[in-house]
Amino acid sequence: MSVTIFMGLMIPFLGTSLGSATVFLMKKDMGRQLQRALTGFASGVMVAASVWSLLVPAMEQSAHLGRWAFIPAFAGFWLGILFLLLLDSVTPHLHLNTDQAEGPKSRLARTTMMVLAVTLHNIPEGMAVGVVYAGYKSGNANITAGAALALALGIAIQNFPEGAIISMPLAAAGKGKMGAFIDGVLSGAVEPIFGFLTILAVGFIVPAMPYLLSFAAGAMLYVVVEELIPEMSAGEHSNIGVVMFAVGFTLMMALDVALG
Known about the structure:
Elements: H1 3-20, H2 32-60, H3 70-90, H4 110-138, H5 145-172, H6 177-188, H7 190-200, H8 202-205, H9 209-233, H10 239-259
């Protein structure tokens, strides 16, 4: 594995780690407005990345199918949705600002289930970066180093607020700041792991690249719609979440076009 690819896989993890480190600066609980703003920003980045960095390239790579060029993207997208639906159903987890755990009944601590919730939606992000770098490595998928870097940077940027969203509430709930930081870092560790596993399978991935790109898009959009948008819009005065969604979307769109 080249240094370029290794660094690309680690960039999103660095974003999560830096965001988790904000817990050491925390002097009070994270306010609801700030939570909405950070969640909205992360949602915007993920939606733009799903469209510009994953679904559009998937259809471009299927252009030889003519009017049926949407089929690989359609099929991969639904496989990604169903994959996350399955993970969501079999993993006990607890979303931010809720008291009702999801998934099978468990005796896991509340803080552990909060970390699992974030870990779940970091999996498709890691896969997304991995599949794009796998395409770049193959040289046969029309994916440039700039396009792959744009996706890695975009996910790292949205991982920063996500790291803060997991570590700061854990500290506010009574966990030590170092423990909250470590939990935040660990929640992001699945990204380079799943990215690396995707790279290892590069020989299989290249023929199925459009399906895998759209698979990652479907998995990420499942997370956005099922978790992030409800958190962004909960309660009154949620306009800040919408504005930050737009900021995140346009930032990721600009990165993809400028670097791709």
